[in-house]
Amino acid sequence: MSDNPLYKRTIHKHEIPSELLPEGNRTIRVYLPPGFQQWISYPVVYCQDGEDFFNFGRIATHSQRLILEEDWEPFIIVGVDVDKKLRTSEYTPDGDRFSLYTRFFADELIPWVESHYPVRDVPGQRILIGDSLGGAVSLSLALAYPSLFNRIISLSGAYYETYIAQIDQASTLDHLTLWMLVGLQENEYTTDSGTYDFVALNREAVRRLEQKGAKLRYLEKDGEHKWGFWQNEIPEALAAFLGPTPLFES
């Protein structure tokens, strides 16, 4: 089976030009499903921390198996890399590069991907996925650009006060659909900005989101704030939007 080109797993790497980012470009990696055809349009998953999702989350490996063995509709994955030294600055609303990064994502990345790959260009067929700060900035993007994004997968989202303030500023979030997960052993996790109870942060985010009318599936499971936990949960997370019997309608 592995020798058949129909079952080939393809990952392309690109440098996306940017007039917004000071370095002038951003690395992305693109997973193309088995049997990929340029004339077919595909749902698309956009990953924050793209390199980590591919290397540690094994999202391409999971997706390949789900499409081939469990008869999922094929989809494309776009992983957006981040410089770890700049991650907090880009992903947090009070960070120096937050506006530049979110504008790059919406105004440069999305048009580039949609002009080079046959991805579907409606909010219900674009899924944002992220871990920790990546999950929280995915929410920020959906709040800032509702015409582009309304579907989010959040793995242990770091919902600090600045993100909660963004939720509170929204008049309604009834267009938003989220699949959220946190590990019960994440109740005392130390970051570069302090020690946080991620369970409490996620519970509060869920409460605020539901008050605004967002539709969501929220799970708490045994797990720590690390890829060893998140990696195994990615298939269930993707299934909520992309599986043969999705939890949420398109």
Automatic annotation (TrEMBL):
Pfam families, per database record: Esterase
Which residues span the membrane?
Answer: none
The molecule here is called Esterase family protein
Q: Which organism is it from?
A: Cohnella herbarum
Q: What is the lineage of its organism?
A: Bacteria, Bacillati, Bacillota, Bacilli, Bacillales
